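Student: Hello, beginner here. Can you help me understand the protein record under this note? Any guidance would be welcome.
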Amino acid sequence: MRKKVIFNGVALPYLLLLPQLVITAVFFFWPAGQAIYGSFLREDAFGLSRDFVGLENFADILSDPNYLGAVWNTVIFSSAVAFSALGVAIFLAVQADKAIRGSGAYKTLLIWPYAVAPAVAAVLWLFLFHPQIGLLGRFLNGIGIPWDYKVNGNQAMLLVIIAAAWKQVSYNFIFFLAGLQSIPRSVLEAAAIDGARPTRRFWTVIFPLLAPTSFFLLVVNIVYAFFDTFGTIHALTQGGPGQATTTLIYKVYVDGVQNLNFGASAAQSVVLMAIVIALTAVQFRFIERKVHY
């Protein structure tokens, strides 16, 4: 029998919520408010003077070819990272969920990469694909495949996608594995008795039951690709070559920290925040309809 907790008054519930409310206000609402306020101003590089310019910062960035290029880079990068990380993770989770010898060790090893910092993960891939000292980079050049991500924009984009997706696979793997282990074995056994082969069982039984997990991870991975990949890009390519790997989050850093254009950087932050909120709302509005809980 379930018990219902009843509070005598409102003081205790609000007190219990207070730490989370303070964290949200300090680390989200206050910075977001500062970014919105700063997007309407134009400051000098030393912050000694500022002028209210209204929507001029937004007009400037939306007419800037470099910013529009960063938007396109972000579309390619975020889509590739999210879907490749989800695809590899669900494949590994299905394999690890099988009754095989040493499955516990495999699961532990597959989870470990999530503990690696983004910059460290980027350095690991740098030492693999560096054209002069990287094991795989030297191998590719040795067999006649020209590889130098420092001068080839497509190769640089491919490298940062691989590095960012590899970092996120472990996170997705944890949730997919938990979802697989929550599926009743009797359901899978019934499908097998009915003659469904492993591939058919996956698409008709397993994947539909993983829909809530997949939807949650889709939202998380899109947010990750937009915001949490700055360290990977900065350590690997620094947005180059020729801004080929400059995404929206990295453009905010370049204009705000390197070029000291605080108004444009704040405006880009507001646009980026609006894009992510809109994408999340669209996912909940349209994609969640296909999710069966």
